[in-house]
Amino acid sequence: MSRPSIFVVSAFATAAAIAAAVGYEWLPKAALNAWPLAVGTIGLALTQRVEAPRRGVYLGLIVAAFVLELVGAELPIAPIALGIARIALLALVLLTLYRRPIDEIGATTDGVNWRTISFGAVVGLLPTAGPWLAVWVTRPAALVLNPEWRYADEPLWGAIAALVGAGAILFVNTVVGEEAGWRGYLVRELRGRTTRRRLVWGTALVFALWHIPFDIFIGDMDAPNLVVNQFSRYTMGLVYVHVFIRTGGSLIPVSVAHAMHNFVLYQLIAPRGLLAPEPAGLEGLAVAGGYLLMAVALVFVVGRQARAIYPEWTAPRPGPLTPPSGTESAGSEPRA
């Protein structure tokens, strides 16, 4: 079995095991944090030509992220303290990317600047925040502060630290977890070994299907919602591959895009998020449709921007047939 196949099988197996264990309450809900981090662990373990000490540092960051979230959920830690700890972990991750990069998976700050970071942020925000912003502009009452926000009882600075910390841990889980595995390992491992269609469409498809155990065991979704969710994840998976390629195969811009996307969904418009969406009439349908349309548009726009770079990442096309040994093609010079 090839290394990419081992990665995909292991990723699906761990996802199913973790989702089932949490869904049946064999493990606490905070253990779900192991789900994205496991992908980064598998990818890092399969990556070749990485020094053991450097690999150990990144595995230590993965363990730290998991333990921090588990302790934060199971012990009565003040949100401001947990937020500061998450921000400190983010700073440590960024320092590691700068001082101890792993170029084999794109875990480096080389080539990263405010332009690529801003590009990633905009890509992540457009499908999620864009439709809601459009609805809010036309009817401000559609989006108000949520009185049941999880940090509503905290002092202002405590609530700010908790919210920033929530964004920080989303980025950490992405840059050493999901993106390190799906893009940093799998896409780079397939570089120069497959067609563009398989590199983009194939990896995006397995990325989307990898979420199914979560939707079944945790989300308890019915068939229609399951199909819609997989389609939205597939389109965003395509976008993430395009962003990864367009920005030189670096984990940071694509992780910013992924983290910003999840931040809006889980921290701003979730049931206990900062904002309380109150759509009226067809506004909810318009928001859902706007998300899908924006995601599809990004697939084409960002994909077009990355088109010129893809030949460096895909297998070379077969050249003209070589004449059999001992013969000369018409019009060619005789061999010496």
List the helices and strands and how they pair.
Blueprint: H1 3-23, H2 34-46, H3 52-74, H4 79-99, H5 114-138, E1 143-145, H6 156-189, H7 196-209, H8 212-217, H9 223-246, H10 251-268, E2 275-277, H11 283-306
Antiparallel strand pairs: 1-2
Helix pairs in contact: 1-2, 2-3, 2-6, 3-4, 3-6, 4-6, 5-10, 5-11, 6-7, 6-10, 7-9, 9-10, 9-11
Low-confidence spans = 319-336
Q: Sheet with the most strands?
A: 2 strands, antiparallel
Let me know the average pLDDT.
Answer: 92
Succession of helices and strands: HHHHHEHHHHHEH
| Extended strand count | 2
Total helices: the number is 11
Q: Which percent range fits the helix content?
A: 55-70%
Characterize the overall form: globular
Report the end-to-end length measured between terminal Cα atoms.
45 Å
Amount of beta strand? under 5%
Cα gyration radius (Å): 22 Å
Helix/strand structural class: mainly alpha
- As laid out across the biggest beta sheet, the strand order is 1-2
What does this structure look like?
- This protein has 336 residues and is mainly alpha-helical.
- It has 11 helices and 2 strands, in the order αααααβαααααβα.
- It has helices spanning 3-23, 34-46, 52-74, 79-99, 114-138, 156-189, 196-209, 212-217, 223-246, 251-268, 283-306; strands at residues 143-145, 275-277.
- The protein has a two-stranded antiparallel ribbon.
- Helix 4 runs parallel beside helix 6, helix 6 (156-189) crosses helix 10 and helix 9 (223-246) packs antiparallel against helix 10.
- The chain is globular and about 55 Å long.
- 40% of the residues are buried.
- Residues 319-336 have low confidence and may be disordered.
